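Can you make up a polypeptide sequence alongside its tokenized fold?
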Amino acid sequence: MLRVRPIQFTSDVAGWKHLLGALGLVCVGDHGDWVEFDAGSGRVALHSTSADSPDDGTTVFGVEVGDLAEFARRTVADGTRAELVDADHGQAVRVTAEDGFTFLADKASSRTTSPDADPGLAVVGTWLTPDVPGAARELGNIGARPRRASPDFADFSTKNGGILLVLESPETAAGGLAFEYDGDLAAVEARLAAAGLKAARAGSVLSVAGPRGGTISVTQGR
């Protein structure tokens, strides 16, 4: 099992709940400081933090898997560093790429996706790196499936939902929360407007301001 599940740290959980619901995601678990939302493909977690925290507004690249030990074994066998670790929230697998990028694979709380989520909406996890081919190899080693590639980007589908995207960048980091929509962006735009959220359309990309700053993009599916 492999599912995209970035974590959005925020001091405005209510604002993010409102935005994600308007985009077409559905809340599948609310534990106060940890809230999970399903898209039609992939999942997003909100992690509450204080307004003065350096984490406020940051997005953490992450995935969910079924069996942690088996995921680590297969990833190592395919040539990428992976180790079982005790994270703050429990056991996970830390994946370390050659460019220095690290991320956690957590055990999935469920394998199912809410039928109430917009089936056309997919969560996109973004990895920024100066070494696109290298990062692409690492994602293949964790079980992601190549879709397209060029010298400055590569993207992948995953077996259990969501898209992983590698973009060329001078520095290695996680990109902000983003989505891909397999349908008419006008439908998403209308939902946002009905929720009192203004979106800007530029060709195949719809952008909406995030709570407390930043921009969330929804790209027309390719």
The chain has a mean pLDDT of 96. The CA atoms of residues 193 and 199 lie 8 Å apart. Helices lie at 13-23, 68-77, 132-141, 185-194.
